[in-house]
Amino acid sequence: MPRPDPIMHARFYHPAEIAIGQLIELSVENKHHAARVLRLKEGDAITLFNGHGGEFSAFIENISKSNTTVLIDAYQDMDCESPLNITLAQAICVNEKMDWIIQKAAELGVTCIQPVSTVRSIVHLSDERSSKRLQHWQKIIISACEQCGRNHLPQILPLISLPEWLSQKKTMRSSHDLNFMLSTTAVESLRNMPQPSASAHIALVIGPEGGFTQEEEIAISHTGFIPVRLGKRILRTESAALAAISAMQTLWGDF
Fold it and tell me: For labelling, which of 20, 87, 121, 146 has a CA lying 20 to 30 Å from the CA of 50?
């Protein structure tokens, strides 16, 4: 159902069940954002969502230094999800670039983000650091959905190596799926690709700052990925995925 035009109220993610008439205490982070950043007051209207679809209108009952409670008023069956089911496999890059890619990919409507490590990846994370980054990326996705109006959170998966991910893709391959690899040597463009079916899963794999090695490109191609390029220019890794997703949404999605 399309979102109506009225002004969008401040939106907060609440990872629990929500019911009409319920009094909910906002989390510490949401309380700080409501009081200190947005300067909301008692009686102000806000919106809550829990990531399972739809959203709830609410009013601030009490706002103070110790707690902020909101009263759930009504449920709206609203959804602004893209008709495309896109998985972005992004080679991990330096923190600021990776954060940017994840934030914008969520805004552009991807369904799933899979960070992968490659031969030329500059960033190498231990298991502990990888777990902390995953939690950080999850917060970025939540913030992006609060901002852009999505009521479903795109999935962010734990970091794995490119060969591991390709192995998974081989076992999950379907004839309806479309798999793309951006490559500077490709001759085809997205506009030459077939319209995906409604049930198709689209996978897009993007290399690191230094690009994929020749061996990696061969392995990706052997897994069923189609090399494509975006124009005649070489894009940075933080630009490539976002440009490709935007092009897909324009060609087949909701742009």
Answer: 87
